[in-house]
Design brief:
The structure holds two protein chains of two kinds.
Chain A lengths: L4 E3 L2 E4 L5 E6 L6 E8 L3 E9 L2 E5 L6 E5 L5 E5 L8 E8 L7 E2 L3 E5 L1
Parallel strand pairs in A: 2-11
Antiparallel strand pairs in A: 1-3, 3-8, 4-5, 4-9, 5-6, 7-8, 9-10, 9-11
Chain B lengths: L3 E3 L2 E5 L4 E7 L6 E7 L5 E8 L4 E4 L2 E6 L4 E6 L8 E8 L4 H4 L2 E2 L3 E6 L1
Parallel strand pairs in B: 2-11
Antiparallel strand pairs in B: 1-3, 3-8, 4-5, 4-9, 6-7, 7-8, 9-10, 9-11
Classes of the chains: A mainly beta, B mainly beta.
Chain lengths: 112, 114
């Protein structure tokens, strides 16, 4: 157990729908990062939050949004889902810049 | 933009050494990382090296950094079947990848044959 908890582990939904992925960071970590892993694109950075505030944005679509709550858990919202959004979505957390990120086990999203 | 490249596959025999290579483009990278991903699991941090170091050793793992060539390698000594996984190289710098976020390579799939 890495200490980063992601729910749900698997999600199957239809095109056009909206889903919410949840992440609880490791205790003491203030930064939360979201990544998308697909076979053709590899690991793509989506967005980072630090202590409740958006810190950096990567290749995140306008249909996707995220937030970090006062208790530091984070949610990634994906709307108007398309088949191409099927992927593994990882959350990671960190406490400082040197030590790297701790990853959760991911949410596998399948859009049918 | 910043990029990290790795070969996609490596196959070795059990007991041999494995060497996984990586090149990166961001010369301002301050930290470089190796992660391991087993099937169905998240990424596990194996080790990292600060850019002012040439080498770091941690049990069976040896990381070599050639900053001039922007080349990073991970050597696994006495490779075991349990080492079969995908290995990701990642770079991080003060200005790299959206305010210093990690940029990952596509991963090298290591297969260990008994």
């Amino acid at each position: 157990d890495s200490g980063v908890t992601q729910t749900p582990k698997h999600l199957i939904t239809a095109t056009g729908q909206r889903v919410t992925l949840r992440c609880s960071p490791r205790s003491g970590d203030l930064s939360v990062y979201w990544y998308q892993q697909s076979l053709d694109q590899g690991l793509q950075f989506l967005i980072q939050y630090y202590n409740g505030e958006e810190r950096a944005k990567g290749n995140i679509l306008e249909r996707f949004s995220a937030q970090q709550f006062p208790d530091l858990h984070s949610e990634l919202n994906l709307s108007s889902l398309e088949l191409g959004d099927s992927a593994l979505y990882f959350c990671a957390s960190s406490v400082d810049r040197a030590g790297g990120y701790t990853f959760g086990s991911g949410t596998r999203l399948t859009v049918v | 933009g910043e990029d990290v490249e790795q070969s996609l596959f490596l196959s070795v025999r059990e007991g041999d050494s494995s060497v996984i290579n990586c090149t990166y483009t961001d010369s301002s990278s301050t930290y470089l990382y190796w992660y391991k991903q087993e099937p169905g699991a998240g990424l596990q941090l194996l080790t990292y090296i600060f850019s002012n170091m040439d080498m770091k050793q941690d049990q069976r793992l040896t990381v070599l950094l050639n900053k001039k060539d922007k080349h990073l390698s991970l050597r696994i000594a006495d490779t075991q079947t349990g080492d079969s996984a995908i290995y990701f190289c990642a770079s991080r710098g003060p200005g790299g990848g959206s305010q210093g976020n990690l940029i990952f390579g596509k991963g090298t799939k290591l297969s260990v044959k008994p």
